[in-house]
Amino acid sequence: MTRALDREIISTTQQKIANMAREAPSMVLLTLAHHIDLMWLEEAYRRTRKDGAVGVDGVTAEAYEERLHENLSDLLERFKSGRYRAPPVRRVHIPKDGTKKTRPIGIPTLEDKILQRAVLMVLEPAYEQDFLDCSYGFRPGRSAHQALEALWKGLMAIGGGWVIDLDIQDFFGSMERTHLNAFLDQRVRDGVIRRVLGKWMHAGVMEDGAISYPERGSPQGGVISPLASNVYLHHVLDTWFEHEVKPRLRGRAFLVRFAEDATLAFEREDDARRVLEVLPKRLERFGLTLHPDKTRLVDFRSPSRADKEPRSQPERSFDLLGFTHYWGRSRKGRWVVQRKTAKTRFSRALRQIGHWCRRNRHRPVAEQQQALSRKLRGHDAYYGITGNARALARFRHEVRRLWRKWLNRRSRATRLNWAAFARLVQHYPLPPARVVHSIYAT
What percent of the chain shows pLDDT beyond 90? Predict the structure, then answer.
């Protein structure tokens, strides 16, 4: 009962911050840190993931929880007095989609995650009043599927048009902190909050036992990093496009952004080419660079409007948020924008299934069937969108093939041909493909 009351108090406080920020868009907030008390930190701890990898101090959630009240009280005192020292984040590298390349991820300490969550809880209500509708990534009540829906509706409205498939090279490692501080100054100047934000930006990175202190960028993996990236691109890209670019265009245009991934669509080719020409200069002003190979202009006009010259699908399609967007015929024969699972995501998901089947091939068949069913339902929860049924069905087929392959390697004595495997699947069926996100649902 007490915990529910605490959450209600925190929710009410957040609503007050949101109302104040919404009613005074140009007001600078000078006092926010006083909202963060022991109750606030306890709620931040509850919202913090407990099963993640440990940071540089090696402290686990189990160990921290043994003296939770004392630890949070001490954290609060250090935060308010300025004695809090942000430890370096532990850097690991994870593979990128469909390539041998990796991308760095920072792992903060548990205490860092708790305090970052607490600060996020007080900053988010204010910035949510400033962010534009075109931004979807890492915002409460917004999702990748909402971004995909907005993109689909926008493309259908302008008949596809011309698309700038935008890719910012090493965005998190390129943000200039002087610009970020200037952007933050426009809304939040609470001394305690800004001091701890600065400490997180300058905390350093530990990799292979060595600590480095990059002069630019924000460590990926921290709870506060997505908000910092949204603040940065809100000023660099979103408001610039909405207030400076669109009024100068001759045709319709719109932007959809999910974190650092963005797509700009234009009704007219000349508008798209003019923006593509000035876009590198705009980003360079703030320390950012367009990826020279991944950023491209796509003629995405509906085939009914486009030139009659034959073009390959890669030339007239683009990827965003794990989906390839292309034109296809509807059941009624009309040209519509369709989406299918991107090749890199499809291959990555299959590799993960294959690795799991290999590691768990000696488990009971019923146990394997339950685990694979959960994985397939999870796959559908993201990729199960209208028009993607063929890719979902093909994914099922490939999963069954992998399952049979590794069941056959359980023993040399027993071999499953396809007929025998079909009988096994009748007893241990995998769930059928399911469209979870329909464009026709209200």
Answer: 77
- Averaged confidence pLDDT in the chain: 92
Decide if pLDDT at 35 tops 50: yes
Decide if 268 contacts 251 (C-beta within 8 A): yes
Q: Is 329 exposed, middle or buried (0-12, 13-18, 19+ CB in 10 A)?
A: exposed
Instruction: Quickly tell me which residue has 């995909």 as its tokens.
Output: 148
Positive or negative torsion for Cα 359, 363, 366, 367:
negative
pLDDT value for 155: 97
Query: Directed axis angle between helix 68-81 and helix 110-127, to 10°?
Result: 60
Interval 74-90: pLDDT, tens: 999 999 999 999 999 89
CA distance linking residue 138 with residue 259, whole number of Å: 7
Report the interhelical angle of 225-233 vs 110-127 (nearest 10°). Answer: 30
For residue range 115-170, what is the model confidence (pLDDT) as tens digits? Answer: 999 999 999 999 999 999 999 999 999 999 999 999 999 999 999 999 999 999 99
Q: Are strands 162-166 and 296-299 parallel, antiparallel or unpaired?
A: antiparallel
**Is the distance from CB of 282 to CB of 236 less than 8 angstroms?**
yes
Region class of 170: left (phi > 0), else alpha (psi between -120 and 50), else beta: left
pLDDT at 442: 45
Amino acid in the structure at residue 435: V
CA–CA distance, 20 with 27 (Å, rounded to integer): 9
Helices 343-359 & 365-383 angle (0-180, nearest 10): 160
Output the CA torsion 313→319→324→325 (10° steps).
-80
Contacts of 98 (CB under 8 A, 6+ apart): 343, 344, 347, 348
Q: Which residue has the tokens 């071999």?
A: 415
The rounded distance, in Å, linking the Cα atoms of 104 and 101 is 10
pTM, two decimals, is 0.91
Are the beta carbons of 111 and 45 closer than 8 angstroms? Answer: no
Q: How many CA atoms lie within 13 A of 285 on its CB side?
A: 10
CA distance 257 to 148: 10
